[in-house]
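ARCHIVE CARD
Drawer: 12
Card no.: 0347
Subject: one protein chain, sequence and derived structure
Cross-reference: see card 0346
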Amino acid sequence: MKNTKYDFESLVDRKDTNCLKWDLFEDDIPMWVADMDFKVAPVIQKAIQKRANHPIFGYTIVPDELFESYISWWDRRYNFKMSKDDMMYSTGVMPSISSMIRCLTDVGDNILIQTPVYHVFFYVIEDNNRNVTENQLIYENGNYYIDFDDLDKKLADVEMFILCNPQNPIGKIWSQEDLSKIGDLCRKHDVILISDEIHCDLTDPGLKYNPFEVSSDYDRVITCLSPSKSFNIAGFQSSIVHTKNEELFSKIKTQLHVDNSDSCNVFATAAVMSAYNESEEWLEKLKEVLYENKLAVKEYLANELPIIKLVECDATYLLWLDCSALNVHSKVMSEFLRTNQGLFLSAGSDFGECGDNFLRMNIACPKELLMEGLGRLKAGVTALTVINKGLY
C-alpha cells in the first residue's frame, strides 16, 4: 500500500539489534513470534527521542496521564468505561497473569484454557505448579466455535479461566453472546476469569472486538490490556490490569509489588501515551495494510498452494493455516521449512495438540517480505509432498 505519511513498505534490517525475532535464530524469514516488521508510528519515535535527549534515566513513576490515555482509548473506541481506581500498572500481560495465578490460586489447582491458544498460557500455568485443563474449541467447516457443554463440565473443577480475547492463534473475535455465556458459566461455578485482550485493536477494518467487561456483568473478572501488539512497542514492557472487584484488586496489587512487576520503564510512559493519544490514525492505516496482506495470502494459497487452507479470521496479524491435507505433524512441517527454506512458521502443536495439523504465520511485514515468505512456503510444501510420495 502506497502511503505518503506512514511507511509500511520499507524493509528494515533488524539483524544485530538483539532482536528476538531476527537474532535468536538464523532463519532467513522469521514469521513466528508476534511482533511486527513495520516502523513504529512517527509520533512514538519522536516521543522516545525527546525523552532520550534528557541525560538522566533514573527510577520512574507512573503518571496519572498514562492511566487516562488507557481510559480515553477504551471509552471512545469500545465503550469500555474504566476508572483509574480500578487499574494497576504492570510490566506486561504475561507477568501479570503469572502474578495472578500465584495470588489467586493454590499449587495443584486446575486452570482452564481454550485450545488451540497462545502457547505461553501452558507455560505460565505449569511453571507455577498448577494444572492445565483444556476446553478444546470445535473446528468445523473452516471455523472455530466454543464447546459450551464441555466448558460447563470443565469449569466445575477449575479455579481460574484464562481467556484469549480476541483469540490467538485463530484470530477469532468472540461475540458478545459468547462472552456473556462464558460469564454466566463462570458465575455458576464461581471461577475467576482473566481476559487477555492484548490483540484487541488489531481487527479487520470496520470491525471491533468486544471487551469482556462490556459483554458480561460477571464480577470476578480481570482484564489485561497493553499497547504492545497494536503499536509494536513490546520492548517497552508496559501494560495495565483492570478489575472492579475490590477483593481481587487488593490481592493482585500486593502480588505485583511482591514480584517487582509494578515498576515503570523510563521510556514506557512516553511510548504508551503517544500511542494512545496521538497514533490512532497510524493504527487505522496499519489495519488496512494487514488486511491487504491477509487477502494476499488468501489469494496466493487459493491459486498457488490450494493444499493449504487459510482459516477465516477477523483479528490479529497471525494467520492459522490448515495443513491437514499434508498429513504431516506440524513440528515436522515447521522444521522442514526452516531447514530447507529458511522460513520459520510456528508449529500448530505449540498451541495445544488439537492444533497439530496447523501452522501459525505472522504477516505483519512489508508486502515484499510476505510474498518471499509465501514463495518459500510453496517451495517447502512442494518438496515435502514429493518426499512423502516417495515414502508410500
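Annotation on reverse: Residues 75 and 81 are 5 Å apart (CA to CA). The mean pLDDT is 96.
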